[in-house]
Amino acid sequence: MAEKSPASDVEAGLLTHLNSAGEVSDSRSFASSLGVSHLELESVIKSLSAFRIVDRTDVIKETWVLTDEAKGYAAKGSPEAQLVDAIPPEGASKDALKAKLGDAFDVGMKAAARNKWIGFEKGNKDLVLRKVENVKDELQDQLKRLANGEVVPDRVIDDLKRRKLITKEKSIWYSLKKGPEFVLKRKILATDVTTEHLRSGDWKFLEFKDYNYGAQGQPIAKGYVHPLMEVREAIEYIFITMGFAEMPTNNYVESSFWNFDALFQPQQHPARDSHDTFFLKAPAATKLLPEDYLEKVKQIHQSGGYGSKGYGYDWKREEAEKNLLRTHTTAVSARMLYKLAQEKPFAPKRYYSIDRVFRNEAVDRTHLAEFHQIEGLICDYGLTLGDLIGVLEDFFSSLGMSKLRFKPAYNPYTEPSMEIFSYHDGLKKWVEIGNSGMFRPEMLLPMGLPEGVNVIAWGLSLERPTMILYGIDNIRDLFGPKVDFNLIKNSPICRLGM
Questions:
Q1: Mean pLDDT of 283-291
Q2: Least trusted range by pLDDT, from 68-72, 288-292, 426-430
Q3: Other C-beta atoms lying within 10 Å of the C-beta of residue 174
Q4: Which tens digits make up the pLDDT trace of 384-418?
Q5: Contacts of 220 (CB under 8 A, 6+ apart)
Q6: What are the Aminoacyl-transfer RNA synthetases class-II family profile domain coordinates in residue numbering (predicted)?
Q7: CA 213 → CA 13, 209, 216, 217, distances in Å?
Q8: Helices first, then strands: H and E counts in the chain
Q9: Which of 138, 177, 247, 498 gives 20 to 30 Å between its CA and that of 404?
Q10: Contact 54/176 with Cβ under 8 angstroms?
Q11: DSSP code at position 322
């Protein structure tokens, strides 16, 4: 093989050949004729085609090639044939055959038994016997034919793929013709004017390369905002423009009192079961609870009050003191309403929160053990269900969800309660997007809020609208250890309502 030529010699050889012959049908064979690698010729071809000096046609061919394992079988024979050849007339033990064949033993045993080439001594499954004198090694023959470029039936290809003995390899080469700007020798165009050009004056005679006004600059190294944060910021902006103030949500660990009892949720409620709630081992309980308020909550649960019969059970303080990972941000709402009730005189408030909650749920495409909950509430005199519906229509229309329906529902701490549905144009159906209701008097009045003050509230997850807006169908692709950073980098900024 001749010594490799510099790139300029390769280019000169290619242009000379095209000038006389008019075309190159196969760049691989032409590279061999020049004594250079195809990779060297390829770089010259791409450069010349960029300046339209040559026209190139890409030729792509996919071929099946043998794996390293298959190459060994093509040379030595298939594992099953090697196994039969290794068995003497009197038979051999499995250990002896394994020591001789190595990794091919297990595969060879299965294939030879399937072909009925081997058997076992009666009462001794360790002694392997030959059942045939000679074998026709079809696998070795098939591998050799494939390695030589011969065509083999599709059923053979399928069998070799199943045994992972072949893999697909893509080859790319080029056919070439003269381009519209063809020249026998390419001019070297200048890209800059140097001080030497100015001093000598030869800048007057230089030909300059065209300036590419469409070229992109170097990408700027920067961070990217997660889709959840994009949607969160948009929703926060909606709350703020509607006059809401953010509640502090930095306490992931809550007591059962604020998470359940203060919300008029009975201690035997299914939501407190260990299958739904993460309880803490250390610290397992809290003693820092408002005593006067706790006593009122106890009485409401046991005996009722404020028009309620209560639940009629023996309320236990030790159950209320248990620490847990909060199951909803409504626990934060209960704290804020209690704090508001202590402020005199009473002043109407609008609050919102967006933060994580935790539930012991089975992880699947739409559920995680932790997720984000969005919650909004309004506390004022004389609020009605009509006010709640009006606020919900304003809120969700800002999210691009103007088609709403409401369905009666049950919540322990709201009455009446409504599930919120929105029509999804992409899915062509109504989809549940949240829950809402008016907090019960049994929850509000023990806090000390004045008579006639009502609280309307609603909640939804952050993940569900984000998945809809970004076209993500698996929550694990959005949130958690399996998230694809390319998704974050390449996703356009979300536009709510689109």
A1: 90
A2: 426-430
A3: 22
A4: 999 999 999 998 888 777 888 999 998 888 999 99
A5: none
A6: 230-481
A7: 33, 12, 9, 10
A8: 19, 15
A9: 247
A10: yes
A11: B
Assigned token pair, 127:
């002694």
The H or E element spanning position 360 is none
Note every long-range contact of 389-393, with CB atoms under 8 Å and residues 24 or more positions apart, other chains counting. 391/242, 391/456, 391/458, 392/420, 392/436, 392/458
Closest CA to 329 of 467, 437, 459: 459
- Does the pLDDT of residue 37 top 50, yes or no? yes
Beta strands 414-424; 429-439: pairing state:
antiparallel
What tokens were used for 40? 């060297």
Handedness of CA 103, 109, 110, 111 (dihedral sign): positive
Tokens of 51: 């300046």
How big is the chain, counted in residues?
Answer: 498
What value does the CA radius of gyration of the chain take, rounded to a whole number of Å? 38
Strand partners, 57: 175
Cα–Cα distances in angstroms (integers) from residue 334 to residues 112, 152, 248, 257, 378, in the given order: 73, 74, 12, 10, 13
At 352 the three-state DSSP class reads: strand
HSE, side-chain direction, 13 A CA sphere, residue 35: 8
